[in-house]
Write a structure and sequence with these properties.
- The chain is an alpha/beta fold.
- It is 25% helix and 19% strand.
- The chain has helices at residues 63-68, 94-108, 125-135, 158-169, 257-264, 282-293, 317-320, 330-342, 348-357, and strands at residues 33-40, 78-87, 115-119, 142-145, 179-183, 186-189, 194-195, 204-205, 213-216, 219-222, 245-249, 269-274, 297-302, 322-324.
- Helix 3 runs parallel beside helix 8 (330-342) and helix 5 packs parallel to helix 6 (282-293).
- The two termini are 28 Å apart.
- The relative contact order is 0.11.
- Bound molecules: succinic acid.
């Protein structure tokens, strides 16, 4: 990678946008080449007027337009834009995950590409990021970013988030850190990051553990690194086939109807968003035990939003055939369970080892 080492200072705020993969600018040829893959989201959203930050359409602004409003990018990287999709990320679908991961793997296998930035909606960003963290086969930087305000808004947060994401992707220190999320000046690990606000621009946090580092005014600093295996060190490969895994929730007065319907529909796995330490209402727990006895993989996560779910050992998990999700929230636990089942993992103890590892 041709990235400068300690920091990248944005020198030329008024230079014109380098929107193509070729550049005649002599200085720019020394800069890292970063592919920017756009998928839609609020970062590409537009409303009828600039004061509207809630009633807009996501995913309508193209990647070239997103880049064009950030001329400072030309001092950071040679960007290679691609429009992969134009969706509201609430509609993220499994075939698009396959397409995205395969495209990133292909790009990163190219010696001319130094890193990838993915622009995404905030709503399912944490799921896509964790999926890529487990299936990208490269140690080159992959950085997701997004925005809470549409591109048309007063004080839109997308342009600076995009500049910061490219800055992180272009930086040597980002290599080998797994998939990263650059948002509101913080750099998070894809494993830990979650969306924590429906409206605030500071919408992403890594509960309990905190961000990996920060990016500001062209400077990138990591304060810790990721411990659990990712990218090149996982057993997971992206494929076109996805095992059917769903999520159910435990709450006061819940019935077993949803679990029984899922089992009847032939699911391979169920993640339960339990209360507290992944505890489950007695009616749902019995339904899940029945499901596990029929070979359905059952993973206990928590709906709480931070902390971890301890394995209950002989008292419950062993007897019922359940797996604990540890510190993964239900949505990330579902991603890992799908990948594990797709890789042929079977049985609660094998799955527990996978959850304890990743
Ligand atoms: C989306 O997730 O695509 C819409 C919401 C957002 O990006 O903030």
């Amino acid at each position: 990678m041709a990235a400068p080492g300690a920091s990248l200072t944005i020198a030329a705020m008024n230079t014109s946008i380098p929107s193509s993969t070729t550049s005649s600018d002599e200085g720019a040829t020394l800069l890292p080449r970063i592919a920017v893959l756009a998928t839609g989201g609020t970062i590409a959203g537009a409303a009828a007027d600039a004061t509207n930050t809630s009633g807009y359409q996501a995913g309508v602004v193209g990647v070239e337009q997103l880049l064009a409003v950030v001329p400072a990018l030309s001092a950071v990287a040679r960007v290679a834009p691609e429009q992969i999709a134009s969706i509201d990320s609430k509609d993220m679908a499994l075939p698009l995950w396959t397409t995205l991961a395969q495209r990133i793997n292909a790009l990163l296998a190219d010696d001319d590409i130094d890193g990838v930035v993915v622009t995404h909606g905030t709503d399912t960003l944490e799921e896509t990021a964790y999926l890529l963290h487990l299936t990208i086969k490269s140690d080159k930087p992959v950085v997701l970013t997004a925005a809470m305000r549409p591109a048309s808004a007063l004080s839109a947060d997308g342009p600076l988030n995009l500049l910061n994401a490219v800055t992180v992707a272009a930086h040597v220190a980002s290599r080998g850190q797994g998939v990263l999320v650059a948002f509101n000046n913080r750099i998070h690990s894809a494993r830990d990051v979650v969306k924590t606000s429906t409206y605030a621009v500071d919408a992403f946090h890594s509960p309990e553990i905190g961000a990996l580092g920060w990016v500001q005014d062209g400077r990138v600093e990591f304060q810790r690194s990721v411990v659990r295996p990712h990218t090149l060190a996982t057993e997971f490969v992206i494929g076109a086939k996805w095992p059917h895994v769903e999520i159910v929730v435990s709450y006061a007065g819940v019935s077993r109807i949803a679990v029984d319907a899922l089992v009847a529909a032939g699911v391979r796995g169920i993640v339960v968003a339990g209360t507290g330490n992944g505890s489950i209402h007695a009616s749902v727990q019995q339904a899940l035990a029945d499901a596990a006895s029929q070979g359905v993989a059952v993973v206990r996560a928590s709906r709480v939003g931070s902390g971890h779910v301890m394995r209950n050992g002989a008292a419950a998990d062993d007897a019922l055939g359940f797996v604990s999700a540890g510190s993964l929230n239900p949505y990330k636990a579902r991603v890992l369970l799908m990948l594990a089942l797709a890789a042929g993992a079977a049985g609660p103890m094998v799955l527990q080892k996978i959850f304890d590892t990743y």
